Amino acid sequence: MIIREIRENELSELLELYTHLHERGVPENSVHLQKTWKTICGDENHHIIVCEADGKLVSSCVCVIIPNLTRSVRPYAFIENVVTRSDYRGRGYATACLNRAKELAVKADCYKMMLLTGSKSESTLNFYKRAGYNSADKTAFIQWL
User: Fold this and answer.
1) Contact 47, 62 (CB under 8 A)
2) Of the candidates 138, 143, 73, 137, which has an alpha carbon nearest to the alpha carbon of residue 108?
3) Which domain CATH number covers 47?
4) Contact 78/111 with Cβ under 8 angstroms?
5) pTM greater than the 0.90 cutoff
6) C-alpha distances out from residue 53 to 73, 88, 114, Å
7) Is residue 96 part of a domain?
8) Whole-angstrom distance, CA of residue 41 vs CA of residue 74
9) Residue 66 backbone phi and psi in degrees, to 5
10) Does residue 75 contact residue 10 with C-beta atoms inside 8 Å?
11) Pairing outcome for strands 2-5 and 113-115
12) Distance, CA of 81 to CA of 88 (rounded, Å)
């Protein structure tokens, strides 16, 4: 298992991995997709952490460090798109990705990390609890656009 940040030439592999999250397919290779990818790759606060096993990307999460003017001007981290290939789940790969995200957040002097999940699955919720997250401190509200 190798935990690292994504390489710019691995977009297609990442998009295929995202089909194990909630995507119904890989998006069309468009100007918009390429522009978005370039923006992400050029943002020092946007980290796509991947786990490589058996020569392929098997798990990933996104960690975005968000500058902040409160909490002694300390940033916070937001975790999104936590995913593991369905045939690689239960092996600790996503936990390793989340641990790397935490290392990045600590290094950036973040005062907290947050993530949201749409899952109601007890196993998924317990996974996040075991990873150190709780659902008691804050209430999340979502407005879909």
Assistant:
1) yes
2) 73
3) 3.40.630.30
4) no
5) yes
6) 38, 9, 27
7) yes
8) 23
9) -110, 115
10) no
11) unpaired
12) 16
